[in-house]
Amino acid sequence: MDKKKSNSLKLVWIFGLLLVSVILAKREWRTRILAELKQAKETTENTIEFIRDNREQVFEQVRTTVTDVSTVVRDITNDVKKISETASHLKESSEEIVKATKEAADEMKNLKKSLHSGDTNPFR
């Protein structure tokens, strides 16, 4: 296993050296790579300078964003509590409606029985 890793590492080094040699051999590629590296360096320097110059504004923006997110989370929590309370109330109301409906159905059955039995006043 170690021999395989060693051989793989050697291959990677050889390939890397060949690639670097080819790049360095071609002047056009070499100048293009140098230009890109200079551009990356300048961009990094500009970014660092911007952060240094605007550090307070950046931190203030982060604080504001954190406060806003905290407020939104608090509002969502309150909304979830209200929804939970409403769902609980609906469950209780539904149970009461079912109970009242069963009672009304029982009364209707009793009324029907009393009408069939010949009783003229079913509410006695």
From TrEMBL:
The record's SUPFAM superfamilies line, in alphabetical order, gives: Methyl-accepting chemotaxis protein (MCP) signaling domain
Q: Which domain of life does the UniProt lineage start with?
A: Bacteria
Q: What is this protein called?
A: DUF948 domain-containing protein
What organism does this protein naturally occur in?
Answer: Halalkalibacter alkalisediminis
